[in-house]
Amino acid sequence: FMYHFQPIVNAKTGDIFAYEALMRTDKSIGMNPLEVLAAAKEYNRLYDIEKATMFNIMERYSIERPKFEDKMVFINTIPGHFLNEGDIAIFREKYGKYTNNCMFEITEQESVSDEELDIIRKLCGSNNIAIDDYGSGHSNIVNLMRYAPQVIKIDRFLVTDIHKDQNKQMFVR
Fold first, then answer.
1. Which stretches of 6-149 are DSSP H helices?
2. 74-96 burial, b if ≥16 CB within 10 A, otherwise e?
3. pTM, entire model
4. In this structure, are residues 74 and 103 in contact, taking their beta carbons and an 8 Å threshold?
5. SS3 assignment, position 79
6. 20 to 30 A from 128, CA-CA: which of 103, 146, 148, 162?
7. Spatial CA neighbour of 103 closest among 86, 123, 84
8. What gap in Å lies between CA 31 and CA 124, rounded to an integer?
9. Along the 173 residues of the chain, how does pLDDT read in single tens digits?
10. Is 95 within 8 Å of 115 (Cβ atoms)?
11. Residue 95 CA: distances (Å) to CA of 40, 58, 71, 92
């Protein structure tokens, strides 16, 4: 896998607030990232994708540290497949000094269990949780309260033509 770091920009100031790590695949394998995830799910290998993503992104972040200028890096996590205790210990040993700069994004495909949420909070702190694509998947007020995210990234459906739709405006507000 390759990872690209897309800037997340503060709309008011134009400054880069953080970077989102985006997984990309080599064209030679003939699959895009969503297809890779679907195949990994079919073959019960999502944990392998999660582990590779976490370690590869943080390795690159640690090596290219000056380019990031202490900005946060947003990393998508797959609910139900977060790092196990052994891998967390290795992750902490290698990248522990950077975990304050990680924002773990909980995707909306499935809910995160209380146990997994506790693991994520212990690794990155309770102030480093984001919800990705809020408004799709398992979005609900209960999960919003459980996760207590610092950042909510709203699903494209809700913001597309929001200026024409009072229901979307009310929900996003």
1. 33-42, 46-63, 65-68, 85-95, 114-124, 141-147
2. bbbbbbebbbeeeebeebeeebe
3. 0.85
4. yes
5. coil
6. 162
7. 123
8. 31
9. 889 999 999 888 999 999 999 999 888 888 998 899 999 999 999 999 999 999 999 999 999 999 998 899 999 988 888 899 899 999 999 999 998 899 998 876 677 888 888 888 888 766 788 888 877 765 677 778 888 888 888 888 888 999 999 998 998 88
10. no
11. 26, 7, 15, 5
Instruction: Return the structure tokens found at 147.
Output: 């996760």
Q: Rounded to 10 degrees, what is the CA torsion of 36, 32, 99, 151?
A: -110
| List of residues 6+ apart from 136 with CB closer than 8 A | 108, 155, 157
The three-point CA angle 9-68-96 to 5° equals: 115
Which pair of tokens denotes residue 170? 């009310």
- The label of the residue with tokens 């890096």 reads 73
User: 100, 110, 101: which is closest to 132 by C-alpha?
Assistant: 110
Q: What's phi and psi for 56, nearest 5 deg?
A: -65, -40
The span from the CA of 36 to the CA of 38, in Å, is 5
Contact 129, 153 (CB under 8 A): no
Which of 122, 139, 40 lies closest to 83 in space, CA to CA?
Answer: 122
